[in-house]
Amino acid sequence: MATESKHKRPTIHDVARTAGVSAATVSKVLHGSASVKAENSLRVHDAVQSLGYRMDPLAAGLRLEQRRIIGAILPDLQSPFFGALATGLERASEAAGFTTIIASSRESEEREADLVARMNDWRVAGTILAPVRSERGMGAAALRTLDMCAVLVDRVSADDRFDTVTADNFEASANVADFLLAAGHRHILLHGATRISKAVRTRLDGFSTRARALMPEVQIDTLLSDDDLETQHRAIHDYFDSRSPEDRPTAVFSLSQYSTLLVLSELRRHGIRIPDHIALVGFDDVDWMQTAWPSITAVAQPVETMASRAIATLLSRIEGKSTGFSVQYLETCDLQVRQSAVLGEKIPRPIVRGR
Amino acid sequence: MATESKHKRPTIHDVARTAGVSAATVSKVLHGSASVKAENSLRVHDAVQSLGYRMDPLAAGLRLEQRRIIGAILPDLQSPFFGALATGLERASEAAGFTTIIASSRESEEREADLVARMNDWRVAGTILAPVRSERGMGAAALRTLDMCAVLVDRVSADDRFDTVTADNFEASANVADFLLAAGHRHILLHGATRISKAVRTRLDGFSTRARALMPEVQIDTLLSDDDLETQHRAIHDYFDSRSPEDRPTAVFSLSQYSTLLVLSELRRHGIRIPDHIALVGFDDVDWMQTAWPSITAVAQPVETMASRAIATLLSRIEGKSTGFSVQYLETCDLQVRQSAVLGEKIPRPIVRGR
DNA sequence: CACAGAAGGTAAACCGATTTATTTTCAGAT
DNA sequence: ATCTGAAAATAAATCGGTTTACCTTCTGTG
Fold first, then answer.
1. d(CA A245, nearest CA chain B) in Å
2. CA of B62 to C1' of D9 (A)
C-alpha cells in the first residue's frame, strides 16, 4: 500500500536512493531503455513498488518541446453529438498515451481563439478543433498564427493547412434527397436553425444539388435563421401560416438536431400531422428520436469513427509522418428510416395504434 | 502582433533580457508586486508586449505544492445533465483563474479510481467527483487514501470527509408525490433504470415517504433494474402485461431521464395513452421533453447552481478557510408541469415557450 | 597482453517559472 | 560627510523530471 501519512509524494530521486542507483538510471528503466543491467532494473522496479512512486507527467514534459497532451476545443458540451465526440476523443487519445484537455468555446469565436492560445500555453502536442463557424473562423486563424499542430472537425470543409474530419454531409443529404424524391415528394422545405454553420450549408447544398439533378422541377423552399428562439419559432409559423394547405411542402428536411426539435414543435402547434400531412427527416440522430411518437427519421453521424479518425490523423501529424498535403476525411452517415417519413405501415414497427 | 516565425516561444528570461532587468523582477511585475520601480515595470510590460510573451502555466506550477488546476470526473459526457454540469464547472472554475480538466469515468468504477490517481499525478488543487455509484465507491476511496481535496457531486448523500453538492432529490420527489396524490392518483409505479445510483434511491425514498405519510393506503409499485436494454424493456412489458387494465397504475414516476425514455417507449408499444390512460412524471428535464407530444412533466435540476456551488465549496476548501466539518448542500429543484401529467386542457395545449 | 569498442552508469545541465537569500541603491537622519 | 534602514534588484536554489557528456567497467580480438 505504501500510504505515506503526509503529502510527501516520492520523487524519482527517492526511488533512486532506495534502489541505490542514480536518477538517470531510474529514468532509463522507466522508459524501457535496453542498457540497464537486469539486476538494477529489478531493484528500481522494487523501489517503485514499495514507495508507490508515480511520475509527475507535467514535470516530465517540461524539458520536451511538447507534452503528451492533446487539447480538444468543442463548441458546446451539452449536445449529445459533441458529448459523444468528446468521449470518443478522450478514449482514442488515452489509448495512445495522451491526456486530453477538453474545453468548450460555448459558441463564441473570441473564446475559441482564446482557448487556442491557452492550449498553446500548455504546449499541447496537438489540438482537435471543432470550430464555432468554419475553418475560416478565429480559432483556426489562431492555430495558423501560432503554427500549431491541429485537426479540424465537423463544421469545416477542406483546408489547405489542416487535415479535416467531417461526416459526409453532402452525400448524406443527397441520400435524403434520393429518399424523399423516391417517396414521391415534390415540394420540400429545408430548415436550418440556431447556428448556420459550415456543416449546415453543406447539407443544404448536398440536398439541393442532388434533388435538382434528379428532378429539375422539384420545389425546394429554404428557411434559415440564426436568431433567438422566439424569432425562429415565428419564422416557421409565418411560413406555414402564409400558405394554403395545397401550397404546403409535403416534406421537411431539418438540417440539425435543434432544427428538428423546432420544426416538430411548430408543426404540432399548427396541427399538421406527421407523417400523414407532412414527412420529416432530420440531420443528426439522438436517442429521443427513436422513442418519440412518431419516431423520427434521421441521419446518424458516425461519431465514434470521426473521433478515432481525428486522433489518428493528429497523431500521425505529430509524429511528422504525413505528407505535406492536408487531407479531408469524409465519414459515411447512415439514414435511420423511422415513422416520421413513412406513409402507411411500410416499416414494421412495434409502436402501433395512432390516435 | 509579434508573430515569431519559428517555434521559439519567448521565456521569462527573454523578457528579462529585452527589458534589461532580471527574471526575478519580471516575475514580480507580472504578479503585481509593489516593490518594483515604475520605470522598470513599464519596460517589462513593453517587452512582454513586443515579444508576445505568455507564461507557461505548467512550469509556473512546478515549484508549487499544487497547481492552478481543478479536475472534474464525471460518469459520462453524453447525457445532457452531465454535459451541462461540465460546462458549468468549467465556467465557474475558469472565473476563479483555474484550468479545468474534464474526464469521463464512463460509468466504470475502476476507471474512476484510476482517474482520481491521475488527477493526483497532475497535482490538481482540487477535484470535483460525480461518482459512478456513491460516496462509498472506488473513486471516493481513492480520494481518501490520497488525502486529496475534493467535493462530491450528484450521486451522493452526506459524507463525513468530503463536502457534497446534490439536487434535493428527496424533497423534489416528495413534491412529485404531493402533486400526483393531489391529482387523485392512488396507484403509482416508480421506475428506475440503467444505473441504480444513490440519487435514484433517494428519489424513490423521497416519494414513498411522503406518499405514505400523506395517504397510507396508496399503492406504490417499484420497478428497478440495472440490466441491459432488452431486459429492461421486457421488465416494463411484463409488468403491464401481467395485470388487467383496472389493476394498472394511473401514474408513473420515472426516476431518471433514461427511465423516462424507456417508459415512454413501452407505454406506446402497449397502446397506453398519456395522459388519458396514465400520467407520467420524470426526474430530470431535457430539451426534447417540452417539445415531445405530449410534452413531459419533469423535475428540473438546477445544474448551473450546482456547478457554481461545487466550485465555490472546493475553492474555500483549497484556501483552507472552511470549518473542519463537511457540509452537504441540497439544491432546490423545480417541477415543470406539462401535458403528460395533466388531464383535460388545464394546461394550454400549444407548446408555447417564453412569450 | 594490450587495446578498441561496447555496455552500463552517473554527475550535471536543462526546461521555465517562483522564491529565498543576498546585494545594491538611495533617501533621510545625524 | 557618514550612517541607517528601507526599497529595489538580482543571483542562485528549487521544483521533478529528461538528456547529454563523460566516466567506468567489461568483453573480445589481434
1. 20
2. 24
